[in-house]
Design brief:
six-stranded parallel beta sheet; four-stranded parallel beta sheet; 12 strands; about 45% helix; globular
Length: about 375
């Protein structure tokens, strides 16, 4: 299994791994990531072994680091080949991220069946590069034959964390975990595993208004904003305000929330559809082909989410959140429409298809 860089790659990989274990108890799984990236912490925390490659991405701005990229790529290809030979896998699965390229390419050279899972409506560079020789490409959106051979595309949806399947609405355990009261509404703000500056600054600016309106807050800040957020919430420590760089128990956070504010990454949207809580989406404008805006517009057009553009969020986001928390009927309508996008069995479908392809035999 390979993929990483962000939670949007890591969590699908872990979900597929768990589905494979459920289908074949005792199967051996090895993750391969990029050294220094978050998968090197998150995957072991999930109970899996991982090894790292020295691969990095190409910087979009002029950088001396780009001069080292060819050498890191060659070293990663060599190490990936040794990993594949040493582990002897029946299949190799990539979900995007730097390490997927060298690992799947090495497996393809050895004739081992390879598979990719693409989360977004716009295929990532690594997956497009690998597409010609993979056995199957598992996708979450229609029209992905624009990037992958049509005969190999399987529409499954995105794998999500299985602990989201049986959420209780505001369970006592979820509220207690974050030190919250069941008597006040709860706003959950998640800017992705690395945080989001716009969301962080919007929440920071609106803290006093939130507290004055009797709104509690669970705020995932990312590492870069964690210290500033902790300082900002210090005066409100007894008002139901919780901050953390990263929320490990996202199932409890979703359970506690009455309203969720989020970026619009494909994996996040897949999870939100299963959770079924009302959502305000603020798509990041800094991603390839602006795919988060396309994701968010698809939901907003079906009245399944509220869309606030990134450049309007600092002025509009907290006000919109407070108004929506008071609109019970509006929240219920959003929730019902969002649930129409629920594809919770994606990981099990992918695992079953991979095992079927392995059983068929043949080379990649």
């Amino acid at each position: 299994m390979s993929g990483g860089g962000t939670g949007g790659h890591i969590f699908p990989a872990i979900s597929i791994a768990r589905a494979l274990e459920a289908a074949v108890p005792g199967c051996e799984l090895l993750f391969v990531g990029a050294k220094g990236r978050m998968e090197m912490e998150r995957v072991p925390a999930a109970g899996y072994r991982i090894v790292g490659l020295p691969i990095t991405g190409i910087q979009r701005s002029l950088s001396a680091q780009n001069l080292l990229f060819p050498f890191r790529l060659l070293k990663s290809l060599w190490q990936a080949s040794r990993i594949v030979s040493g582990f002897g896998p029946d299949a190799v699965v990539g979900v995007g991220g730097y390490a997927s390229g060298p690992l799947l390419f090495a497996a393809q050279l050895k004739g081992i069946p390879t598979f990719i899972q693409e989360q977004n409506a716009y295929a990532g560079l690594t997956n497009k590069w690998l597409a010609g020789r993979v056995r199957k490409a598992y996708v979450a959106y229609e029209g992905m034959d624009a990037y992958f051979p049509a005969a190999r595309v399987v529409l499954t949806g995105n794998p999500i964390r299985q602990d989201l399947f049986a959420l209780e609405h505001q369970s006592a355990a979820s509220l207690q975990h974050f030190g919250l009261s069941g008597r006040k509404p709860v706003l959950l703000v998640i800017g992705g595993s690395l945080g989001a500056r716009t969301l962080n600054e919007s929440v920071h600016a609106g803290l006093e208004a939130l507290v004055a309106a009797g709104v509690q807050l669970i705020w995932q800040t990312g590492k870069a904003y964690a210290a500033k957020a902790a300082e900002a919430v210090a005066p409100f420590k007894d008002q139901g305000i919780f901050t953390a760089p990263f929320i490990d128990r996202m199932d409890l956070a979703f359970s506690a929330a009455n309203l969720i504010v989020s970026r619009a990454g494909a994996g996040t949207i897949s999870e939100l559809a299963v959770v079924g809580k009302p959502v305000i989406l603020v798509p990041s404008p800094h991603v390839a082909e602006d795919h988060q805006t396309k994701n968010a517009k698809a939901l907003a057009a079906r009245n399944a989410a509220i869309l606030i553009p990134d450049d309007a969020a600092r002025e509009e986001l907290m006000g919109a959140a407070m108004r929506l928390l008071k609109d019970v009927d509006g929240c219920n309508r959003l929730s019902a429409q969002l649930k129409q996008f629920d594809r919770r069995h994606a990981a099990a479908e992918i695992a079953a298809d991979i095992l079927n392809e392995i059983a068929k035999g043949g080379k990649s």
